[in-house]
Amino acid sequence: MHLDGVDPDAPGDDAAMNSKSASSTAHRLSLAAPQVAATPVLVGPETTQRPLRDTQRIPRLSKPAPDAAVGDFLEAFRIHLRSSSLYQRNHPRWIESLNNSERRLRDALAVTQTVQVRIEREVLMVVHGDTPHGLPASDPQGELKTLAEDLARCGITSLEFLPSVHLGELDLLSQQIVWAMRTRPASPDRGTDAWKQWLRDAHVTGIRINIPASRRDATVLATLVAALLGYGDSVAESAEARAAAPASREQTIAALGLVERLAALGSQRAASTEETARRAHAVLGEAERGLVSLLARTASLAATDANESLPSFLNRAAEHLILDFASRALSEGRIQPAEIATQLADLTRIRANGPGASSALGNDEARVAALVERFWDALPARHKQRILRSADAWCVPPAVFARHLEPLTAAARRGRSDAPGREARNLLLRYTACLDSEEPRARRTVAAGLGELGPQIARLWPHAATEDFAPQMVRALGRESSPGISGLLAALTERLAKLALEGRHYAEFDRILSALEAAPRDPEQTHFSALIRSITTDDAWFYLVEDALANRALDGVLPRLLRREPERLLDRLALLLTGPEGSELLPAMVRLVRATGEPVLDTLATRLRKPQKQPVVAAIKLLAAADPVRLIAALPRALPSWDWNLQDLAVSELSRLREPALALRVARAFYECVEEAHPLVVPAMLDQIGIANDASAIPILLMIAGGKHATLRDIFFRIKAVEALGRMRASEAADLLRTIARERSGLTHVEPAGLRSAAEEALALMENHPAATRVRAWTETLEKSASTFSQPRRYLRIPLASSFSARVEGLRSGAARVHTIGLGGAFVESAQRMSVGDSLKVEIRTGLRSVRSTAVVRNVSPGGSGIEFVHMKAEDRELLRRLIGRLIR
After folding, report:
1. Could you state, in order of their start, the residue ranges of all structural domains in the chain?
2. 204, 668, 760, 762 - which has most CB atoms within 10 Å?
3. Is the dihedral of CA 687, 693, 695, 696 positive or negative?
4. Alpha-carbon distance 251 to 232, whole Å?
5. Strand, coil or helix: 850
6. Is 793 exposed, middle or buried (0-12, 13-18, 19+ CB in 10 A)?
7. In which band, very low, low, confident or very high, does the pLDDT at 583 lie, cut at 50, 70 and 90?
């Protein structure tokens, strides 16, 4: 070894530095790169030149394999390079990664003299005493391949770490590599010169970079290949005979042994190239002619690269022998598809256990898995297609299956023909059908493979031809007894459900849930309930609800999905109703509730008796619009337990119903519970009874109007009862009305003026006398205008040419202007923001006098708010009636 990393056969340093282009390039690289002194990261002078081979360390009980130790160092060094590109030099993560790289390198140097790494075909090759040919570094995650690509981009083809390397040199190397990765990639020649210059300028002696490949190694490779091909031509009659030569398992094993014997020639000393050729011919002469012919054919197919080393070529030749045997054996029926992986692993192990071979060859599962993938990739498409259509489809590795599906899915996306897509879906279903296999290995392979086929499944599913795809997996999950396979299938089912939800494929989402719900509920299979909960999380459920409320046609599957859990659906709807857009979403909610049907409607009816206010409010609004009959039927039992706000909401919502049959049912429900209603709600209930013309309520109306009722004796209630009797034209009430209107006690009337006026107007509607003309005209005008409103009008509303001033007192007090007024309410404009359902006190100034009333906000618009008078004193009522009489004239 040479400390400066220069080939002994190459020109000296003086001659090399005479090249101006190489010198200028190296100089620029060395100047542009960050120059840091080779000092250690740790504090203390003894660390600066501390060898990584620490003789004071406690010896290990058992030393790791050299290639494993070197692989651990390479992974630690990769992480340190990433930390160097992300963090400052004093960052704890950067310091930790550097120290970890040092420890791993020290461990590797404890089991091998030097740590040597070569980059060949974007693969890191580890070279040490046990593997003179070099072996690829174990890389199951593919991360070291990225490191190989980064090093090649920096112009590095090989690295060697000597025992004298110290922490400062490792730090300097990582900084230089990170800087070089950010610059333009260097060519191999210019990169080699630049790294030579950097090693000199940085005074790094423990690391060698880009050690030129031994010329003798290349000569031995060329000599061996030439001898093999020449000797093969002498023992084979023709190229066709070599191609048709049988390759049994025993022949393949013998050929692998021959490869190892030839590989040993590369490590033997020879006086000349001719001596190496004679030894090669001697080895070939001792072998059977069939083996030589087989190996010659392999050498002709595995052509050498200009920069390829002897170990790399011989490794490829050995793998080609193994793959060729397996391919021929499969095509001739000597082995079955399920035996391919086993055969390849056995041959790799036999090769590793042969004389002169490294035992590490057969210990890397990732290397065997890559060999299996290469076999299936190289298999002709027609053979691969035949196996994928059979019960042996699980034998094809998922990555190979995915690559086989790619052209089919690409053709299906182009849309020229449905045949490629149909074929791809059939293959996917056939592959999934292997979940029914009795062999656990097949089920495990397919379950894991389907998890790797996510992009392909997303393109092929859902489709009408794959309706049974997801249910098939759920059924397989129900039959599975292995916890590991069950976990894979459960994760895959959850992923499919999420995919269906994100793509709005609700029919497939419904099939998955239905299959899970239909699965057995044995104590040993509680994972189904957990899987259902995982699929139907709150986020997923809210997504379904929001999509069902979107402004588009309702997907018929959504109601079927949402009716599974009525409580969760109604909780979400109740929450949305309290939001700022609740009134706008109400029609869509009603549409959804009607579509979901009985389970949700029954749950709404039971929610009317809940103690919490929010669920009751939502239930009243939704039932009043979606199924008012249920609300009407539940009202007598539920209303007494409500506060006045809920009672008022229910009465106002039911009063909007205009269909005569429903209006009559509402009136009868009000008649049944009016005695238990809140005083502020009773007037509206009496009005509705009168509008519906419910004759069965006349007796109680007569009691209230006459002041004979035990609880409803307020004058305002009596006025409302009298008006209801007048609307109904109840002749039975004529005598009572005359008594109210005309009875005197001396010179004064017994009843208040407001009640007497209401009785006179009711009598005018019942009797045909001249005074009835004005009242009948008002009534006809009201009936004509009522058809234009969503809720029946009980009184005329008079627009004011000049608005009245008013004052509002409640949650938000302040001045207001009245633009429209009637006996039942007014339309006011106020700077204070009002909300539907707010109760307030209103004082309306009408000249020198004022009308005072308790009111409830019924609607809100940008121009103002509509309020309903729910209670006022008799004198205020009479004053308001006279005011409206003057305004009508």
Report:
1. 13-209, 215-378, 381-489, 627-779, 795-888
2. 762
3. negative
4. 16
5. strand
6. middle
7. confident
Q: Which residues partner with 312 through β-bridges?
A: none
pLDDT tens digits for 308-342?
Answer: 666 667 777 888 888 888 988 898 888 999 999 99
Comparing C-alpha atoms, which of 119, 128, 147 is closest to residue 70?
128
Q: CATH says 795-888 is which class?
A: mainly beta
* pLDDT surpasses 90 at 55: no
Dist. CA 539–CA 549, nearest whole Å: 15
| pLDDT tens figures, 610-665 | 988 999 999 999 999 999 999 999 999 999 999 999 999 999 999 888 888 999 99
CA dist., res. 242 & res. 259, Å (int): 18
Closest CA to 881 of 828, 816, 824: 824
Of 843, 874, 845, 870, give the one whose Cα is nearest residue 856.
870
Gap between the Cα atoms of 674 and 709, Å rounded: 12
Buried b (16+ CB within 10 A) or exposed e, 372-385: bbbbbeebeeeebe
Residue (of 429, 491, 492, 497) closest to 460 by Cα position: 429
Q: Which strand (E) or helix (H) includes residue 814? A: strand 814-822
Q: Phi, psi at residue 184, to the nearest 5°? A: -65, 135
Are 506 and 532 in contact by the 8 Å Cβ rule? The answer is no
Q: In the beta sheet, which residues pair with residue 807?
A: 815, 843
- Coil, strand or helix: which one is 83? helix
Q: For residue 203, how far is the Cα from the chain centroid?
A: 53
Which pLDDT band holds residue 42 (cuts at 50, 70, 90)?
very low
Residue 725: count of CB within 10 angstroms of its CB: 31
Say how far apart CA 452 and CA 456 lie, in whole Å.
Answer: 9
Which architecture characterizes domain 627-779 according to CATH? Alpha Horseshoe (1.25)
Give per-residue pLDDT as tens, 430-453: 999 999 999 999 999 999 999 999
Q: Which tokens in the block code for residue 259?
A: 């490869």
Check residue 787 and give its pLDDT: 54
Q: How far is CA 255 from CA 204, 282, 288, 518, 870, in A?
A: 45, 16, 9, 57, 105
What pLDDT score does 228 carry?
Answer: 65
Phi-psi region of 118 (alpha: psi -120 to 50; beta: other; left: phi over 0): beta
Among 669, 567, 561, which Cα is nearest to 624's? 669
Rounded Cα distance between 280 and 297, Å, is 17
The candidate with the shortest Cα–Cα distance to 253, out of 351, 333, 328, is 351
Q: Work out whether the CA dihedral 91, 97, 101, 104 comes out positive or negative.
A: positive
- DSSP states of 147-167 as a string? HHHHHHHTT--EEEE-TT--H
Whether 627-779 shares its CATH topology with 795-888 is answered: no
pLDDT of residue 61: 44
More confident residue, 386 or 53: 386
pTM: 0.66
Residue 60, both tokens: 């290990």
Q: Kindly give the interhelix angle for 753-766 and 734-742, rounded to the nearest 10 degrees.
A: 140
Model pLDDT, residue 354: 64
Q: Which amino acid is at 203?
A: H
DSSP secondary structure letter of residue 768: -
Averaged confidence pLDDT in the chain: 81
Q: Indicate whether 184 pLDDT > 80.
A: no
**What is the band of 138 on the pLDDT scale with cuts at 50, 70, 90?**
confident
Angle between helices 660-673 and 682-692 (to 10 degrees): 140
Instruction: Let me know: does 298 contact 247? Beta carbons within 8 Å.
Output: no
**Number of neighbouring beta carbons within 10 Å of residue 618:** 24
Q: What are the start-end ranges of the H helices in 244-364?
A: 249-265, 273-286, 289-301, 310-331, 340-353
Asked if the model's pLDDT at residue 833 lies above 70, the reply is yes
* Single-letter residue type at 87: Y
The Cα 476–Cα 94 span in angstroms is 48
